[in-house]
Amino acid sequence: MKIDKLVLLAVVLCAVVLVGELTAYGPNTHSYSSDCSVENGVADVAVSSSGSDIYSIIYMDNGAYSPPVQLYILLDERYDENFNEASETANLKKFDQRYAADQVRISLGIRGIEGIVVCNEVQLLSMMTDDIGSNIPKGLLVMTYALPEGIYSGSENDLLFKWIAEGNSLYWMNSPIGAFYRNGNELIPVDNGQILFFGKECVNTNGTDLALYADDNASLTKALALKWNRTINGLNVSEIEGAVSMGFRQDGFSSVSMVPFGNGMICVLGGMYDRNQCDDISQIISSGISCYSDVLAIDEGTVTRGTANTNFAVPEGTKNLHVFVSIGGYYTVYGRSFDVQ
């Protein structure tokens, strides 16, 4: 059978168009990378993209603080058991823990964070106990409303406080920090939880949730592309020495707050679980920023199908230069951190 040449040509053209569409819209068609090095007191940063993207670079001096090399995400297997009881006295909203943990893991993954352990409370207790005295900085993300008694029981001698004080980082979201612990299956309220964590009462337990104003660190909020503007269960750190806030603020309470504790840090996000909150905590953790960080400079620009090169003269006296590169702005597609000094 003879095939008409015009029909054959039409088939070929359709195939070419189809391949083009798959190339344009298919997965993993874009590539991103970055690099950073310091020579003769100058930090050279290269940011690459196969498309056209905005980028930001944050140069910071982290001093004696070291960002976590591994992150624990607690999966509370008894979350549903005491939720109704806890929500009688606390601002809580039920959410799917496994889904949230997976979203955080994915968000951290595109920012170069791979050392993530999703664990239950028994596993967490074992790992935190082993961490004491190890001098290897770890992080813990808590998205539930109560910790087990072996980790936190409303006492200043608790394992949790020893663990943070040794230089580890606690990230807390979705509930008022330290309000409860579990003794077996029993939920125990802690009346002085805020005092134990912060030395004063500073948690937004029943105030306004929606924040209408950018925090004073507006340039840092923009560079980190923070977008979650809820403050319920967030902190007012205006009277806490060494604490910093960023994101958005309402009535003194911030959507993101960081407070020093011993040699470690406590970071609290306001509001209930949301995809934007997931992105914000991922930016914060992957950036390596803390309440000890001195932001030296912020550089922003656009890279288009190639590499953008920029440099920064590192100030004399900088102790621990840390650089965070982010591509995509509020729709972050890539992030990397560099310890270069």
Can you offer a commentary on this structure?
There is one protein chain. By secondary structure, the chain is of the alpha/beta class. The protein has two domains: 26-63 and 303-341, S-adenosyl-L-methionine-dependent methyltransferases (Single Sheet); 67-292, Rossmann fold, CATH 3.40.50. Helices cover 24% and strands 34% of the residues. The protein has eight helices and 16 strands. The protein has helices at residues 5-25, 83-87, 97-109, 121-131, 159-165, 193-198, 218-223, 275-287, and strands spanning 32-39, 42-61, 70-74, 116-119, 138-142, 146-148, 169-173, 180-183, 186-189, 213-214, 244-250, 253-261, 264-269, 294-313, 321-327, 334-339. Strands 4-3-5-7-13-12-11-10 form an eight-stranded mixed beta sheet. Strands 1, 2, 14, 15 and 16 form a five-stranded antiparallel beta sheet that branches. The chain has a three-stranded mixed beta sheet with strand order 6-8-9, with no helix packed on it. Helix 3 crosses helix 8. The longest helix has 21 residues, at 5-25. The chain is globular and about 70 Å long. The relative contact order is 0.21. Residues 19-27 have low confidence and may be disordered.
In short:
The chain is α/β, with parallel strands linked by helices. The protein has 2 domains: 26-63 and 303-341, S-adenosyl-L-methionine-dependent methyltransferases (Single Sheet); 67-292, Rossmann fold (3-Layer(aba) Sandwich), CATH 3.40.50. 24% of the residues lie in helices and 34% in strands.
